[in-house]
Write the structure tokens for this entry.
Amino acid sequence: MFKLKPLAIAILTLASAQVMAAGNTATQIQLSGDGNDSTAMQTGISDGNTSTQVQAGDNNTANVRQLDVSTGNVAGQAQAGNGNTATIEQKWGAYYNEAAQAQTGNGNTATVDQHDEATANHVYQVQDGSANKAFAENAYVSTGNYATQLQSGTSHEAEIWQQWGEGNQALQVQDGDDHYAKVYQGADANSNISVQTQTGTSNTSTVNQLFSADGNYSEVTQNGVGAGNSALVEQNWGGGNVSVLDQDGDGNDAHVTQQHGDGNGSALTQAGNGNLASVSQHDGDGNQSALTQTGNYNSASVTQADGGWNVSSLSQSGNNHQATVTQGGGNSNELYFEQDDDGNVLTADQSGTDNLITGYSHGDDNVVDVDQVGSLNTAHVEQYSGSSENLADISQTGSDHVATVLQGGMGNEAFVTQTSTGNTAYVLQAGTNGTATIIQN
């Protein structure tokens, strides 16, 4: 949680401290009345300009334009009231500029536009109230820019666009309910960082790092004891990207997509009830997915297709989980799974050569279904620790496969089906009412 008041003093002091050189100064203060307009223009080749605008009331408009090869300029806007609009433009060869906007009230809009060869610029946007909107853009051959958005209250929208640039950073923090946060870093945008934190219920988070974007990092955290949070992370057409997604609460929904790239990594954690999670890594080699769910009624889906040397790690602790993992179209893929407690279901499919599935389901009424197609694949399933009424079904098509099933408890069943030659199957059951069937043809 962040403190917003006194809002205008804090944000304008932060902006003023960043002045790099002496220049022109514009100060506009409108403290009474509604529907006021305030405009400041500082253009041309200039350094160290400062523009400050303060408005109190409703439906006011504030505009600052610092353009044309400007360096070390500072723009600060503070508005208190409802339905206000604040806009700052720093572009066309802008370097080391600062833009700070603070709004308190409802239905306000804050916009910062820094683009066209903009380098090492900073954006600070702070809003307190409800139904406010914040938009920041660092784009078009922009490098090393920072955008920070802080919102407290309800029903806010925050967007940061950083594209066609490298080394940009986006930070969004929202405290309250029914917020929407989006970060877009794409189109030849490399080594960018996106961090989103949402506290409350019914919040939505979206991160897009797309189109020839390599080495990007995304971190999404959603905290709150309540239903309805959702998060979407897309890192496509690039390699070496990392996604870290953490949800704590009930009824959460999370989706991570990393496609058309090599060496991507996803770490997704959900703690709570009724969560849904999906990870899709397509058309790439050496991708890694780690998915952890703690709680009840969770569902997990991991797909790693059309690539090799991919690794998936799945851990579920709780009741009535469902998990589906698909690794296809490549070689040397690996799946490691853990399931604890009751009623878990795991379905795993692999196609290719030299793939591995290994793990355990400890608890009651678990079902493990493994299907491997190709050659030299290995499946190892354990159902121990007092487990009962478990079912393990392994199907291997092709040659030189190895299947192992270890079951402890009562009422367990094991089925192993292997086709072609050079296959090996081993089943061990400890307890009563177990059934073991091995078919090799």
